Amino acid sequence: MRAVPDATVVAITVDPYRRGTELYGWAESVAVAERYVDAVLGQVLVGGTFERRGPLDWLWRSGAAGPSDVHAFDLSLLDVSGVRVADPYVPARFVDVRVGIAHRSVVQESPWGDDDLAHVADTTLREAIEFGAPVVIARPGMLAVARRRAGIGSDLAAASSDSWEPVYQPIVKLGAGEVTTAGYESLLRWRRDGALVGPDVFLAGLEATELIVPVGRVAIARSVEALAGPVTELLGPDAFMSVNLSAGQLRDRWLGDYVGWLLGEHGLDPARLWFEISENAVVTQGSVADRTIWTLHGLGCGICVDDLGAGFAALGYLRNLPIDVLKVDRALVSRMPSERMDRAVVRAICDLASAAGALTVAEGVETPEVLAAVKELGCDMAQGYLFGRPASLA
Length: 394
Ligand code: G
Ligand code: MN
Fold this sequence. Notes:
This protein has 15 helices and 15 strands. By secondary structure, it is α/β, with parallel strands linked by helices.
């Protein structure tokens, strides 16, 4: 046990994107970082101890009561972080500084192990680096998040392939008459300690470790089996299955081969298998992701742009990629009855789709009012709790 438990921990990294290293060289960058920590941070962080964890990384810990005014403390760190000049002396050198702050009094969780607060500070520092924010301050509840993440890498690596269980949500056709189920979206779930958990728990971990490639293949295989079996029995030989692809899967050069082989094994018409690519995935021309999409299209599979409406990437996608389906984001769809501008955006998406010869799916339809709005604008299909939640087919 530490003699005095940490009250505040600050995790600091200098030059996280290696811009200084590129401009000044490694040795000088490290020297600038040392000067900055000494001359600048040393003025702000008083009463605790600095621990050097690497050439460009420091951890500052303060025990006992910690700073009396945490807000003032946070602001003083904000003042000296981000991109700034290391010191007032000539020659001036800029330093890029990212800081994660964890106050025990703010995070408010118990019980505390010796390194819990340092772990929380590291989690906030990672966010600072990821989002390009100079300073991130740990929020209440963050220890639980850090702890959940701590075990997840090894749990994912140890997970057996049958712990991955897709669930299926109906997608309905909107015609003049009754709505009828035309196919399903496959949504991946993970059985962990008896509970079935969603992508918010596992997706970032799978992507970070590239485990998304084998796990994604299990998900596709299960979905294709479901399509060939129960879905065809329930809905007939024209029903489709739509499977989400994340960034890591799109970078898998052999995904197309694998899908082609799977479809052959089950004797399925490729047009019945769709793939969803998030609008937020950045697909540049000539990249592996770009080739993967063209390969899947070449096999005859449907290509969908998912979560449409958050950004405007879809305009470029429609021009450069073989898009068959536009899926309108549920945030946008759910606001349609009340917000004129959101209706206008959805209308524009429907126009775009018909010009491009693509189909539209409105996601997240929860009420008859939203369904009416979606029908009025001429969306081809819809999906949402009004028609069914993601569930197993059996
Ligand atoms: O990004 P993507 O469209 O693949 O996300 C699908 C997610 O949206 C699933 O996790 C599913 O549970 C959720 N979802 C599906 N329909 C609805 C709905 O009508 N309302 C809400 N709030 N969520 C929905
Ligand atoms: Mn989707």
